[in-house]
Amino acid sequence: MDRLDKILASQNLGSRKEVGAMIRKGRVCVNGERVCRPDHKLDPEKDTVSVDGNPLRFARQVYYMMHKPAGVLSASRDPHAPTVLDLLRPDQKRRGLFPAGRLDKDTEGLLILTDDGAFAHRMLSPRSRVFKRYIAVLDRPAAPEDVRAFAEGLVLEDGLRCLPARLCLLEGSAAQVDLCEGKFHQVKRMFAARGKTVVHLKRVQIGGLVLDGALLPGQARELSAEECASVFLPLPEDRLKIQK
Ligand code: URA
């Protein structure tokens, strides 16, 4: 249930103040009854709303999972380089879409695009403790001391302290990193603080949402309500072996 003025403002019918004035003037009906209180509560999924007798069709918010390819900017627009929004099919494009969080230009993998600012804010806030999982290929293998340093909370070269992160050593010089914050170039800088260089980086999971293996780099598909909710689930316990 949400306030009538908030719902009308979210449909681009005016600012909260402007739609409030419309409602007080008696121009808005809910389920056929005139409503003059801006704080009237309704369920946009079930209730019908009309303004000046014209029924409103609520534009619902959209959430896409994209397999971001390397070489494309995680931005809404850029005068010089292609952005992730340019990769959407014409039928997927709509006003107000933006990438929820950023991946570096040379990083690939899971990126969520949405027009829901509150969702993005909740997902990105370190307080929500939404983990992101990355697979990094390094110039040389990480070591058990690196696992411990990540777990303790690394201090970056500029003195910034990171929250504890989980590092798992994989085959060869690959490693998996789980972290719940998003400092600039964080994974690369965490490995740099341990004297290693990231040569390839891919994000494969956000909370409980795993990158769909059927999506080719550059493709996107809509998320179901369950998939959106899974972003806020804790990562399943790691089944990969941590080498000690
Ligand atoms: N950390 C990085 O260094 N780069 C990214 O794109 C994401 C996390």
- Helix/strand-derived category reads alpha+beta
Residue share in helix: 10-25%
Q: Main β-sheet: number of strands, strand sense, barrel status?
A: 9 strands, mixed
Distance between the termini: 51 Å
Oligomeric status of the shown chains? single chain
Order of helices and strands: EHHEEEEEEEEHEHEEHEEEH
The averaged pLDDT comes out at 91
- Percent strand equals 25-35%
Which term fits the overall shape?
elongated
Question: How large is the count of helical segments?
Answer: 6
How many extended strands?
A: 15
Model regions low in confidence, pLDDT < 50 over at least 5 residues: 238-244
Bound ions, cofactors and other small molecules, one mention each: uracil
Question: Which secondary structure elements does this structure contain, and how are they paired or packed?
Answer:
Elements: E1 2-3, H1 4-10, H2 16-24, E2 28-30, E3 33-34, E4 41-42, E5 49-51, E6 54-55, E7 63-68, E8 98-100, E9 108-114, H3 117-124, E10 132-138, H4 144-152, E11 166-169, E12 174-179, H5 186-193, E13 198-206, E14 209-210, E15 220-222, H6 225-230
Parallel strand pairs: 9-13
Antiparallel strand pairs: 1-4, 2-3, 2-5, 5-6, 7-9, 7-15, 8-9, 10-12, 10-13, 11-12, 13-14
Helix pairs in contact: 1-2
The protein binds uracil.
